[in-house]
Amino acid sequence: MSGRPESRADEGYPARRLLVLDDDAAVRDTIALMAKRLGAEVRACSSLAEFEALLASFAPDLLLIDLMMPEVDGIDVIARLGPHCQAAIYVMTGADKRTFEASRGVLQAARAEIAGFLHKPFSARELRQVLERASIALPDASPRLLRDRSADLLSPGEFEGAARSGQIGPYFQPIFYADGLRLKGFEALLRISGHSAGYFAPQYLEQLVHDDDLSTFVTDIVIEKSLEFLADLTAPDLSISINIFGVHAVADGFRERLVERCAHYAIAPSRVTLELSEATLFEFDERDFRKVTQLRLAGFGLSIDDFGTGNSSLGRLASLPFSELKIDKSFCLALPGSESAEAVIEACLGIARKLDMTVTAEGVEDGEIAVRLAGMGCHALQGHFFGQAMPAGVATQWVRSGCPGKSA
Ligand code: G
Ligand code: MN
Predict the structure, then answer these.
(1) Which ligand is the nearest neighbour of the Cα of 303?
(2) Distance (Å) of CA 17 to CA 103, 147, 165, 191
């Protein structure tokens, strides 16, 4: 950083239009000064009336809203913005940590699209990260990058059409060993080609959950394309993780078909990990337990995905032969300031150690968190810091050229 100008506007980041709502004049002035230096255009205000007027006249693309103001309730302000607000919303507060975390939970529950949270006092560097993140509109950008995407959303009929015509398939996101240097493999993530730049809305997953025929069709494509991708890589150390709905994993004939497809591509089952969400476990009965155990006995890795968000009991986790636990990204994203997220991650690592499971942390967005998670004992790391999901051809080229841009 030494001697570099503060402004990033000259490095290809489009100027941001930032609107700040805070009752404290000193905070408003400081943020305005920091943001201007970073090349953003700034307006700041302290009342709801001014805020709403500026929202219309200034048309900000980034909002920074204080949650603790004597006369305005930040949570209500955000609730009033409604789903059509085009700006990325960042909230800030100087509340104590647990209140801050609870507010964050309330906001996330009420409105999924909060772009980020800043705990006061924050540094110019933290603000810079916010401005930069909001500026880089990557195609596979995290849902935290805010745009109202409802206009892009395919109707259920269009979605089914896209799936049936082969436009829905896997992109591949890299997973690194915790040293950050060695590639472990990829996770196959569903994306729609040629539409919404690869974004996959939660509504589509819902549709798949409710349409067994369509989800079976899509799952078969994902498995086939993933195995084909892995075979093409011609790198026998690399593995692939595939998300599977519980109902498919335990369906009659699934294991036999998967064994046959792996044999077709000369891929050892141990290189294929099936990810089942923690919530799935809750629905499993005895027959399902047997089917899942048989998958493991056939040599496949079994991963419990989004761990920490479902309702599974530790007893269930212990009685199934999972080989990997994937800590849900919400905990890793919250890690910088959240003691409760740290507690959950430590508890996950503790139980995994006892049950002889490896641990992969998802949602690793910066190097400091990567180092911290590695230090805590995670085996593998996945997230935008290491790379976004890429189409098969791009991912193959990326591996062949030595994984450029791998950061740690
Ligand atoms: O449910 P599962 O854990 O398989 O979901 C993975 C999802 O997480 C994908 O949609 C992927 O795009 C997203 N994702 C991957 N890496 C990151 C990251 O670093 N940050 C965030 N916010 N999301 C990520
Ligand atoms: Mn997953």
Answers:
(1) 2
(2) 25, 14, 40, 30
